[in-house]
Amino acid sequence: MGLTETKTDEICHPSHYCFGKYEPVKVIQDWGLSFCLGNVIKYLARAGRKDGNSKLQDLLKAKQYIEFEIEELENDFQKQRH
Predict the structure, then answer these.
(1) 66: which residues sit within 8 A by CB, 6+ positions away?
(2) DSSP 8-state class, residue 20
């Protein structure tokens, strides 16, 4: 495999996302998830698999994006009530 192919694989199909039957990007697209929920899927899928990121770090990132999504839903609900 040449240098260009290696770089493309690292960008398009990084190993920390390519360990199962489905890549997170395909799940996110298929399910039509928002940016925040897409990031939750991404961080859950790679938890403990990406070099330099601990499982805890990725789970905390997923938690933060769930909190962002909840805040947005709560804000939308408040706007609808007023």
Answers:
(1) 36, 40
(2) S
The helix or strand, by DSSP H or E, that contains position 12, with its residue range, turns out to be helix 3-12
Return the CA Rg of the chain: 16
26-58 pLDDT, tens digit each:
999 999 999 999 999 999 999 988 888 899 999
Note the helical H segments in 32-54: 35-46
Residue 80 tokens read as: 């609808």
List the helix and strand counts (H, then E) for the chain.
Answer: 4, 0
Confidence check: pLDDT of 6 > 60: no
DSSP output for the chain: --HHHHHHHHHHS-TTT-SSSS-HHHHHHHHT--HHHHHHHHHHHHTTTSTT--HHHHHHHHHHHHHHHHHHHHHHHHHHH-
